[in-house]
Every structure is written in C-alpha cells, then in structure tokens.
Specification:
mainly beta; 9 strands; 4-stranded mixed beta sheet; elongated
C-alpha cells in the first residue's frame, strides 16, 4: 500500500515542484510615433520571442524566463531600437534569481522608457 501511495501522491508533487518556472511579465507600451524594433529584456533564458517589435501606439506582453539563471542579485536590462537609435537602460532589481515584482509596465515614448512596478 505504501508504494502505491508514494507513486500517486508524493511523486507528482515532487515533479510539479521541480518544474516550477520563474517568469516575470512585462507589459511594453509603445507611446511613440515610431516602431520599436529588436526589443529584449535580460535576464531571459528563453530562446522563443526573446526579440520583439512593437508598432506605434501598440502594446506587447513580454515574458522573461528567469528559471535557470544563477541564484544571485542583479538588475534588469532593456534594449531596443527606435527611430534608428539604440536605447539601453538598466532598471529594477531581483534577488537570489527571483523577481521582486509580479508585473512591470514599461511605457516607451520617443525619448525614454518609464518603468512602473507592480510588487507582490
């Protein structure tokens, strides 16, 4: 009876716990009159949808996968091209490889990015 209990109760819990992802959701809002191109946010271990383009006056839900980054402290890094200019900005903070916010909104105009944090 105990081996059956182990298989049906404890094993699924262990697999679920080990497969939990650490993801930060960013809402990117392009408030400019220009297309944003080659936008990415680090850290992000994902290879899918890492670089995105956002049309003028549009928004995009960007997810940064931090699941396998080292358990250290650091800040995020935003990079994008707008009106033929490369823009780069460090912002925010994460600790021990985990985000301090559940959602971050980034409002981009033609000159700068304004960051709004939604903490846990």
């Amino acid at each position: 009876m105990k081996p059956i209990l182990f298989l049906f109760v404890f094993l699924p819990i262990a697999f679920t716990h080990c497969s939990k992802k650490t993801v930060v959701e960013f809402k990117i809002v392009n408030n400019s009159n220009f297309k944003i191109d080659s936008l990415f946010i680090e850290p992000n271990v994902s290879k899918l949808d890492k670089y995105v383009s956002i049309d003028s006056k549009e928004s995009y839900k960007y997810e940064s996968d931090m699941t396998n980054i080292p358990k250290s402290d650091g800040s995020y890094f935003l990079s994008y091209i707008i009106n033929h200019k490369i823009k780069r900005q460090a912002f925010g903070y994460y600790t021990n490889g985990y985000p301090l916010e559940r959602k971050v909104t980034i409002n981009i105009d033609s000159e700068k990015a304004n960051i709004i944090y939604d903490e846990y």
